[in-house]
Amino acid sequence: MEISGVISAIVIGVIVGALGRLVLPGRQRIGVLWTIGVGIAAAFVGTGIAAGLGVADTKGVDWIEWLIQIGLAAVGVTALERFKARS
Questions:
Q1: Which of 83, 82, 63 is nearest to 24 (CA)?
Q2: How many Cβ atoms are within 10 Å of 79's Cβ, its own excluded?
């Protein structure tokens, strides 16, 4: 992976993490860095799932891939918040 790919993955991860947090009701008690980390992981995993489903490369905006990534980020933020609340 080239440096431009890593930088774009971080930018997309920030966006996906923020959107994943926005779709959840109420306040989340995790930090911004955790949100970015969850977003980056969700972006990578979501891209893999979208590629497996054959919807990763479409003409125009890949809406299905974005929805998968945002859904995974929301699940990740929820899971991390519950894990940290237990600790």
A1: 82
A2: 11
Q: Are 46 and 65 in contact (CB under 8 A)?
A: yes
Rounded Cα–Cα distance for residues 27 and 63 (Å)? 26
d(CA 35, CA 74): 10
| Amino acid, res. 38 | V
SS3 22: helix
pLDDT of 58 higher than 80: no
Q: Please tell me the pTM assigned to this model.
A: 0.81
pLDDT computed for residue 64 by the predictor = 87
| pLDDT for residue 53 is more than 60 | yes
